[in-house]
Amino acid sequence: MRISTRGEYGVRAMFDLALHHGQGPISLKTIAERQIVSEHYLEQLMASLRKAGLVTSKRGAQGGYELAYPPAEIRIGDIIRVLEGPITPLDCLDVSTGTGPYCGHPEQCVLRGLWKSLQDSMEQVLDNTTLEDLRQDALRLKVAEDI
């Protein structure tokens, strides 16, 4: 699985919201400027994240976006699944879409076990990393002031 700009920019925007959690709604313009992302593109991503319940939005002059939950409760895997779809290196492992398996005997496929192990490893990393973990890493690296 290759993370597209959709997933990358979405995680960056959510990370930005985590860094500024508790400060009230943050405008798309502010997030876009800090993360060097197109505001129009970010608007599309945030719409998906809002629909999935990961962010809330407020309209008006003091409006913007906020995390729907504390940073410790939002896993990177959740964000990636909303923006990219299932976390799977090959379609034959994607049981949710019904696009695989391509062969007639998946239970006898030696390579399928390899790809499943890879999928499990990716899911473990993404599902065991929260926005709070990234926020703490940023604070340790003292990059929070620069973002």
Please tell me about this protein's structure:
The chain has a domain at 5-87 and 130-146: Winged helix-like DNA-binding domain superfamily/Winged helix DNA-binding domain (Arc Repressor Mutant, subunit A, Orthogonal Bundle), CATH 1.10.10.10. A hairpin with a 5-residue loop joins strand 1 (55-58) and strand 2 (64-67). The chain has helices spanning 5-19, 28-35, 39-51, 76-84, 110-127, 131-141, and strands at residues 55-58, 64-67. The model has no long low-confidence stretch (mean pLDDT 88). It has a two-stranded antiparallel ribbon with strand order 1-2. Helices cover 50% and strands 5% of the residues. The chain is mostly helical and 147 residues long. It contains 6 helices and 2 strands; from the N terminus they run H-H-H-E-E-H-H-H.
Tell me the radius of gyration: 18 Å
What is the CATH class of the domain at 5-87 and 130-146? Mainly Alpha
Q: List SSEs in N-to-C order.
A: HHHEEHHH
Alpha-beta classification:
mainly alpha
The beta-strand count equals 2
Identify the CATH architecture of the domain at 5-87 and 130-146: Orthogonal Bundle
Assembly of the depicted chains: single chain
Helical fraction:
40-55%
Keywords:
mainly alpha, Arc Repressor Mutant, subunit A, 6 helices, 5% strand, elongated
Explain the layout of strands and helices.
Layout (H helix, E strand, L loop, with lengths): L4 H15 L8 H8 L3 H13 L3 E4 L5 E4 L8 H9 L25 H18 L3 H11 L6
Antiparallel strand pairs: 1-2
